[in-house]
Amino acid sequence: MYVERLLSVAREKLVIIADDAPLMEVAHLLHKGADLVVVCNSAGFLAGVITKTDVVDQMSRCQEASCAMAALLTMTRDVVTCRPDELLQDVWKRMKERKLKNVPVVDKDARPVGVLHARNIFQVLLEGS
Q1: Cα gap 81→23, rounded to integer Å
Q2: What is the pLDDT of residues 73-100, one digit of tens each?
Q3: Dihedral of the CA atoms 110, 116, 118, 122 (nearest 10)?
């Protein structure tokens, strides 16, 4: 089974923000229920991701103006991604190795098209067994 099978679910979980957006805006999106915020550059390419842990860590250390820093200064740049034509089993393996709950799905140009949650992948793999 391929990632493409879960694209409709992945699209619903996609939350994108510009790399120059303030960290407080990211915190608001995460507070509203997003598990992962995908950060894109001005051309729409994936630049990084931000999780609740990233925001809490940064906010615990910020002082005055640094609390209003841009998302790109906090984001994780080394992002594990997948593409619609990849096997779910391969994505699941990478997620387990890196202990990830979410993985952005990108198109051939590295533009985000969704976010896969481990629970969704596991459910499909379990049904296929």
Answers
A1: 22
A2: 889 999 999 999 999 999 999 999 999 9
A3: -110
